[in-house]
Amino acid sequence: MGPEDAVRLAIEVAEDGLNAGEMPIGALVLRGDQVVAKDFTHERALGRRIVHADLMAMLEADRSIGFSRSSLPLTLVVNLEPCLMCMGAAITLGVDRVWFGLESPNDGAVELLEQWRPPVEQPFFRRPQEILGGIHRTAVQDQFARYATSSAPAGMREWAHGLSVQPIP
Predict the structure, then answer these.
(1) How many angstroms separate the CA atoms of 6 and 95, rounded?
(2) Digit-coded pLDDT (tens) for 128-165
(3) For the residues of 55-84, what is the DSSP string, one character each?
(4) 8 Å CB contact between 90 and 116
(5) Which CA distances in Å does 79 have to 22, 69, 70, 113?
(6) If you average pLDDT over every residue of the chain, what do you get?
(7) Which of 57, 3, 49 is nearest to 22 (CA)?
(8) Phi and psi (nearest 5°) for 39?
(9) What distance in Å separates the CA atoms of residue 41 and residue 5, rounded to the nearest whole number?
């Protein structure tokens, strides 16, 4: 499965979250071309902060895969650029590729990751080999525009509005 199709699936998962009253953030983990996990953010439903879509999907993938590794690459696919916490989890899980739809300039981790120096003593603890962003950007901006007019808390609506109108890089 290529980046276009995979991000489209993450957008569909995010739509499920939006329909459930959550922020429209959806993620999936691929092992090769197989979806091994998918989820959306559950902050409102669970009343917790560390239930990001990408983290939830990676936790499910970790339960499924465990320590077994194969030659199949792991890919984290998210409609919104992963935050620092989720990018750290992706590194720990051994994600080879990260594909996402919309850049998150205030809390996205891609730029910070460029500055990170992985430990040479632990070659498995490394940056993803491929990071692609801007895939279906307009569709994701539309999701955040719709969330910005929802009954979400004011601060979250403002944040979503900012994402929905950010200029294309």
Answers:
(1) 15
(2) 999 999 999 999 999 999 999 988 888 888 988 999 98
(3) HHHHHHHHHHHTT---SSPEEEEEEE--BH
(4) no
(5) 14, 26, 26, 18
(6) 91
(7) 49
(8) -170, 170
(9) 21
CB-based contacts of 5: which residues, under 8 Å, 6+ apart? none
Whether 127 and 113 have beta carbons less than 8 Å apart is answered as: yes
Return the C-alpha torsion angle 128, 130, 134, 139, nearest 10. Answer: -80
Q: 80: which 2 tokens?
A: 């919104």
- Using 50, 70 and 90 to split pLDDT, how confident is the model at 69? low
Which of 6, 65, 53, 66 minimizes the C-alpha distance to 27? 53
d(CA 160, CA 35): 27
Beta bridge partners of 34: 31
Task: Please determine, for residue 107, whether its predicted confidence score (pLDDT) is greater than 90.
Answer: no
SS3 of 118-163: the string is CCCCCCCCCCCCEEECCCCHHHHHHHHHHHCCCCCCHHHHHHHHHH
Q: What is the pLDDT of residue 122?
A: 66
108 DSSP 8-state letter: B
Q: What is the pLDDT of residue 71?
A: 67
Collapse the DSSP code of 167 into the 3-class scheme (helix H, G, I; strand E, B; otherwise coil) and give the result: coil
Please state, as a whole number, how many other Cβ atoms lie within 10 Å of the Cβ of residue 117.
6
